[in-house]
Design a protein that fits this description.
The protein has 13 helices and 16 strands. With 452 residues, it is α+β, with helices and mostly antiparallel strands. The chain has three domains: 271 residues, no CATH class; 103 residues, no CATH class; 56 residues. A nine-stranded mixed beta sheet has the order 2-6-7-10-1-11-12-13-14. The longest helix has 20 residues. It binds zinc ion (ZN).
């Protein structure tokens, strides 16, 4: 039987680093750094309290028990990405433990979740094996990470991918994580096959690579076992280009690291009231909310899925449904057209300039035929970007000019269907920036003239 366990590192969505005031966003290497995250002697860490709140929320989301008293530890080892020669992490008293997160009908147990600082980013010139030197970018040094450790409850790479997708979806919904950040989710993957030792593949980023690394390990270990060879306990590296894992070192045991408690950060105590408050902020989770929307508003699953892809979008939906009784209509405009338009602009609803109030007005205008649907579908594209409905009606001259292009097609015998067909073509030519009723009048005028 194959057993797979994950140690998932997720960068928390904070503006500043875990122990200093440097920004977590930066463009050029080694610009968002200070004596603290560069590990200068004498510098003292200053805890970012926002990171604690976010980590507790993640623990609650994963159904973990939350400790009301915890602290930080130093994990001491030498590695070039670690300026201080130790990483501030949590070893003994992690923020959360003993949780679970389900995928389909399977429950994955969460052993623990803890908060730690990210080391610097190592950039290899070429592959890890033939790189002559490495470059270090300390912008990432000190970025808050949560590490989620699962029990070895996965049996194949597919389950892992489903789990990670759901995890990302949930973390983004709660605004704990921003997937657009580079290297924002990384995994250490433990794979063991019956009859062999556990092998750890370190630091694989991106779901596709994680899947490939697992599949490769299963194949490699099965082949070795079939040949009667032993699988030794070791740590391996996944080469993304070659799609294979390479042995790095025999797996370090806990004794290889010196753990001591971090003396510069006092013990953190969280009262029950605070946990209750954070629980309320976490609130209803995406899948629960989706089920409720389907039942309460009788909308289909597909639209409900799109609507709960973002918390603000789901809030917008329920806000609009308070005033517009046609839930199908609201669902279609938010789950379909608005969502598409957001994707097209590559932003979230929370990043768009559209307010709930303005969007409700927009829907009401469509509902009351003040804006026709075709025009609205055009307008929504710029609406999400600018936050304003910009209706530019074509000038009378422009409209006349386009109509004259269809002059020959407007025969005295033209019926209703024919007229609508021409209106459609004209609207398309002028990007729907005209009132179809006006166009109809103009066409009928020409028709009359011709029949005289
Ligand atoms: Zn710093």
């Amino acid at each position: 039987m194959t057993k797979i366990g994950l140690e998932i590192h997720v960068a928390l969505n904070t503006k500043t680093k875990l122990f200093c005031k440097d920004s977590t966003e930066s463009n050029s290497p080694n610009t968002s750094v200070c004596p603290i995250c560069l590990g200068y002697p004498g510098s003292k860490p200053q805890l970012n309290k926002k990171a604690i709140d976010l980590a507790i929320k993640a623990a609650l989301m994963l159904n973990c028990k939350v400790r009301t008293k915890f602290w930080f530890d130093r994990k001491i080892y030498f590695y070039p990405d670690l300026a201080k020669n130790f990483q501030i992490t949590q070893h003994e008293a992690t923020i959360g433990y003993d949780g679970h997160f389900s995928i389909r009908n399977k429950e994955i147990r969460i052993r623990e979740i803890h908060l730690e600082e990210d080391p610097a980013k190592i950039v290899y010139t070429g592959s890890i094996e033939n790189s002559k030197y490495v470059l270090l970018d300390y912008n990432r040094s000190g970025v808050p990470l949560i590490e989620i450790v699962t029990e070895p409850d996965f049996s194949n790479s597919n389950e892992v991918a489903i789990f990670l997708r759901k995890l990302i979806r949930y973390l983004e919904y709660l605004d704990l994580f921003n997937s657009s950040r580079e290297g924002a989710i990384r995994c250490d993957v433990n794979v063991s096959i019956e009859g062999g030792e556990r092998v750890e593949v370190k630091n694989v980023s991106g779901i596709e690579n994680i899947k490939r690394a697992i599949d490769y390990e299963i194949l490699r270990q099965t082949t070795l076992l079939n040949k009667g060879e032993k699988i030794k306990r070791e740590t391996r590296h996944f080469d993304e280009t070659l799609g294979i894992t390479i042995g790095l070192r025999s797996k370090e045991t806990e004794e290889d690291y010196g753990y001591i408690y971090e003396p510069d950060i006092p013990i953190i105590k969280i009262n029950e009231e605070k946990i209750e408050k954070l629980k309320n902020e976490v609130g209803e989770l995406p899948d629960q909310r989706k089920e409720r929307l389907v039942l309460q508003y009788k909308i289909n699953n597909e639209l409900a899925t799109a609507i709960v892809s973002e918390r603000d979008l789901a809030d917008l939906f329920e806000y609009c449904c308070k005033e517009i009784n046609d839930y199908q209509f609201v669902a279609k405009w938010i789950g379909n057209y608005l969502k598409k338009s957001l994707n097209w602009n590559n932003i979230k609803f929370s990043q768009s300039k559209v307010t709930k109030e303005k969007f409700l007005e927009f829907l009401k205008d469509i509902k009351n035929n003040k804006i026709n649907e075709r025009e609205a579908k055009e307008l929504i594209k710029t609406f999400v970007d600018s936050g304003e409905i910009v209706r530019v009606e074509s000038s009378k001259e422009d409209i006349q000019k386009v109509i004259s292009e269809f002059y020959d097609e407007i025969s005295p015998s033209l019926n209703e269907k024919g007229i609508n067909h021409i209106i459609g073509k004209i609207l398309k030519k002028i990007n729907y920036k005209a009132d179809p009723k006006e166009l109809k009048k103009l066409i009928e005028k020409i028709k009359e003239e011709k029949s005289k």
